[in-house]
Amino acid sequence: MEGQFVRQRRLAAVVASLLILAALFVVSxxxxxxxxSLAEMFSVVIACSIFVVAWNSRHFLNNGYLLLIxxxxxxxxxxxxLHMLSYKGMGVFPGDSADTPTQLxxxxxxxxxxxxxxxxTLMTRRIDAGRVFGWFLAATGILLFAIFxxxxxxxxxxxxxxxxxxxxASEYIICLTLAAAIVLLLRQRRFFDPxxxxxxxxxxxxxxxxxxxxxxxxxxxxxxxxxxxxFKIISFxxxxxxxxxxxxxxxxxxxxxxxxLGEAALRAANDQLENKVRARxxxxxxxxxxxxxxxxxxxxxxAALRRSExxxxxxxxxxxxxxxxxxAQGKILFFNEFAQNFFGFREGEILGRQAVGTIVPETETxxxxxxxxxxxxxxxxxxxxxxxxxxxxxxxxxxxxxxxNKAIRDGNGRIAEILCIGNDISARRRIEEELERSNRELQxxxxxxxxxxxEPLRKVMAFGDRLHSRFGERLDEDGRDYxxxxxxxxxxxxxxxxxxxxxxxxxxxxxxxxTVDLNVLIKEILSDLETSIAENGVRIEVERxxxxxxxxxxxxxxxxxxxSNALKYHGTEAPxxxxxxxxxxxxPGGTGSGGPSWYQVLVEDNGIGFDEKYLDRxxxxxxxxxxxxxxxxxxxxLAICRKIMERHGGTLTANSTPGRGSTxxxxxxxxxxxxxx
Length: 677
What we know:
Layout: H1 2-30, H2 32-56, H3 65-85, H4 99-118, H5 129-147, E1 157-158, E2 162-163, H6 165-187, H7 194-213, H8 223-249, H9 251-255, H10 257-317, E3 322-327, E4 332-335, H11 337-343, H12 347-350, H13 370-379, E5 386-392, E6 398-409, E7 415-424, H14 426-471, H15 477-508, E8 514-517, H16 518-528, H17 530-536, E9 539-542, E10 547-550, H18 552-568, E11 576-583, E12 598-605, H19 615-618, H20 637-647, E13 651-656, E14 662-669, E15 673-674
Parallel strand pairs: 9-11
Antiparallel strand pairs: 1-2, 3-4, 3-7, 5-6, 6-7, 8-10, 10-15, 11-12, 12-14, 13-14
C-alpha cells in the first residue's frame, strides 16, 4: 500500500508540474514579460530556500557541500532578481537595454556552475561559513560593479543582431563546467541517497539544456528564450525536490547518508553485541586451551629460528669468500671468519671502524682515489654492483679483491646496509700484469728488430740497384733473372718490415685521442685516392658519419686500408664503394654488449668477396687469401686495422659472399661518438 501511495504521489506531482508548465506557456503567449518574471521569481524563491536550509544547518554539518551550495544560491538569486528587474520592458533601470539582463544572466550562471563544480570536492571537509559568505559577497560586488558603474563587463547582446560571441562561448563554458560537476557528483555518490542523487544529476542536466537553448536566440522574447526558461524552471524544481523538500522531510537522506548507515550499523551491532559476548565467552575458554598450544608452538618456532640462524652464521663464517656488511656511512657491521683471516683483523678489532683506512686504502697504487669511489658506492651501490680494486691487509700489504655489492633497504626504501662479498684476485692480476708487460716487450722487440733490419736491407737494395744499372747489360739472361728476383724479394722484404713496424706502432707510437670528424677524414682519404678511383671508374657513396674521440692518424690508417682494399679487390662489374654509419649492436664476434651504446661505420663494396669461413684468417698478420701474383700486399693491412680497433675499445669484422662483395663493419663505443652537425 505504501509503495502504491508513493507512486500515486509521484504521478500527481508530474501531472501538476506539466499543468503548471502548460499554464506558464499560455501566460508566455499572452504576456511574455509576465512569464519571465514568474519564472525568475520561482528560481529566486528556491535559491533563498536552499540558503535558509544550509545556513541553519551549518553548525552540525560535517561537510561543506550543502553550505557552499546554499551560500552560492543566495547570491545567484540576487543576480537573478536584478536580471528579472532589468529585463527589457520592465522599465526599472534606465535605458531598457537587452544587454544588461543578459550580462546579469551570464554572471549568475558562471557563479552557479562554479559552485556546483567545487561543492562535491567538499563532501568530507568543514568550511568557514563567514569566510565563504565573504568570498561570494566580494565576487557579487565585483560583477555588479563591472556591469553597472564601470561598464567593463563584455557585451552579451546587440539589438538587431543577437548574441555576441562572448555570450555564446560563455554558455558553452558553463555547459562544460556543469558536465564536470555531474562527473564529480557521481564520484561522490556514496554520500547521497540514490533518489536525491538522481534529482541533483537531473537538475544539473536540465541546466545544461537550458544553457544550450540560450546560445542561439536572436530576440529576448523568442522561442529559444522561452525554452531556456522552461528548462531553468525544471532545473530549479529538481533542485528544490533534492535539497529543500528532501532536506526538510528526510534530512538524513540528503547529506548524512553515512551517519544514517552508521546509526543502522550501530543498532545492528548493539543487537549482536550480546550474542558476541556469549560467543566470546565460549571462545575465551577455547582460546585458553589454544594459547597453551600456541606457547608450545612458539617455543618450537623460536628454537627452529635459532637453529636456522646458527646454520646461516656457520655457513657465512666458514664460507671461502670475504663476507662483510657496511652501514650507510661505511662502517663495518659484520666481518666473517674468512675475512678476519684474510685481512688479519679480529672481529672485535674491526667492527664499527670505517672500511676506508682499514681494509680499503684511500689511494690505489695507480693513483685512483678509492675514498671517493667508496663514497659513491655507499650512495648508489647499484652502480658498483661488481667492481675490482686494491685492498689493504693489516700489515700494509696491498691485495686485489673482486667485490659484489648488494644494497639492503629499510621499509622506506632507504639504504640501511650494504652486503659485500669479495674474492682474492691478486694472482690473476699478477698474471694479467705479467702478460701485459710481455706484450709490451714483444711489441718493443718487434719494433727494434724491424728497425734494425731496415739498414742491412737498404744496403742490399742499394747494391742491387747499382748491379742493375752498371752491369745489367753484361749479365746473361739467367744473371738478369737472378738479379730481378733478388731486387723483388728485397722490395717485398722492405714492405714486410714496414708493415711490421706499422703493426707495432699501433701501441708503441700511439697518439692521444682528439676530436675526429669522420666526414672530413673520409673526404681527405678519397682525395688522396683520387687517381686510383678515376682509373678504375669507381662510384663512391658516403652518408653522414659521426664525430668521434679517437687517434686521428690511426683512424686515417684504418679507413684508408679498408677503402684501398675495396678498390684493389674489385670484380668485373663497375666498382662501387659505399660508406655509411648507424647505431647498432656489435657484430658477431665483438667484445661489447649490444644495444644503442654502440655505433657502426660500414664500408661496402661489390668486389670479389671471400668465403666467411676464412674470416678470422684475413685479420691475422701476414695472412693472405690470394697469391702475390694476383694481388699485391703483405697481408698486414687488416691485422693493423683490427689492432687499431682493439686500442679504441671497438671491433672490426666483415660480412662477405664470394663474387658479391664484402662489408667491413667498424664498431665503436657510443661514448666516444656524437652526431655530426
